[in-house]
What we know:
The chain is α/β, with parallel strands linked by helices. 38% of the residues lie in helices and 16% in strands.
Amino acid sequence: MKIILTRPNYHTHLITPPLGLGYLSSYLKKFGHDVLIIDGLNLSLKNEEIARMSAGAGLTGVQILSDFYLEGADLIKKLKQSGLRVVVGGAHASCLPQQTLQETGADYAVIGEGEVTLLELARSLEDNKPVRDIEGLLCAGEESFKKRAFIQDLDSLPFPDWRQIDPRVCKRAPHGAVIKNFPVAPVTTSRGCPYSCKFCASPMLWNKTIRFRSAENVVDEIEYLVKDFGVREIHFEDDNLTLKREHIERICGLILHRKLKISWATPNGVRADTLTQDLVRLMRTSGCYFIVFGIESGNQEILNNINKKTDLAAIERAVRISRAEGLITQGFFIFGLPGETEKTIQETIDFAKRIPLDRAQFLMLDVMPGTQLWDELNGATSVDWSRRSYQQVTWVPPTVNRDVLEKAPARAFRSFFLRPRQCFQFLRFIKPYQIPFLFRRFKDFRLLSVK
């Protein structure tokens, strides 16, 4: 069967190879299907163009996240107008499958891990067999589906279809904004997360579990990317790269043993309480130069409110260890979490400036489908899929003024970065071809506003 896998073009300052589509493509190809990935984002394609390019497909799969739900819905409608059969997947469809099918007109929704489900759907359609009982699949007009068990042996999955998501031709707007080397490729060494942070959809998507690829399998992929695609930097996009000590140590050891000359970073963040000085030193020796921490707040009560399961002392200790070992450090912070006040906003800014962070990302809370907060607030949030994710207010805690909250990220960015070391660390990695995407980022976060 000819299968198209695609994502729409949408407004963003972050463009990376679509790893999820890459995994689906390679898995389907393994079983004989003809698969074409059409990356509307990287190719700057209009939805009408994607629909024309999808002509003749037996099945078209569309990836949707809440951040580009409207663009995805429009693409699906145009595909359906062209007479195509459409299956939708991604976090948004997994969290709101019935609503997604009703609003987009797609024929099927894949819930959760998609490789096996999509293969079974393609086989059933090709053989004209019923699809209703396929695990992990919801059909249009149906209200229920059977859950699919997670893939336990991640090494059984082929590497992503790197030929079709070639990192060499990806626009240079990487995760992390400014980085050391190009080309850069995202890699995941695990799937899932055992924690239950209230603002994150991972507990629902992965059922608070985590599975690991073998270190050998991970480093085999890195070696393939280096030798066949000239990749010079790896971005580990795991939810919890350093959770299992022996796992990350083995990966670092194999990178060194095989003498792979790469730089690597953790732009998706790591948990501070998993790091020791010995581990950070090993990471640095194997090529790590940039480490990101999911800190969220500089107020301990707020961390407790969101089930972060860590404390500010552990965070500070990990940041200081990383900085002392020569790594560039960055922290993620979120304004608008339960319990936020004008005072806690200032505490977060002060904490970010006090600990030795080189960079910081200050975001607005986005109450996303699939999160515990989404369920707890139950309609109290502003559901507007056209808003900019993590940049606009979706919910105002009763403890803080809306105007104060709206201005907090820009205020924090300016307070943090208008210091000599932070400016220098950011500017030293900027390449001329990245400037348009950086200006888009500055505009999105209102950093150019003088108010």
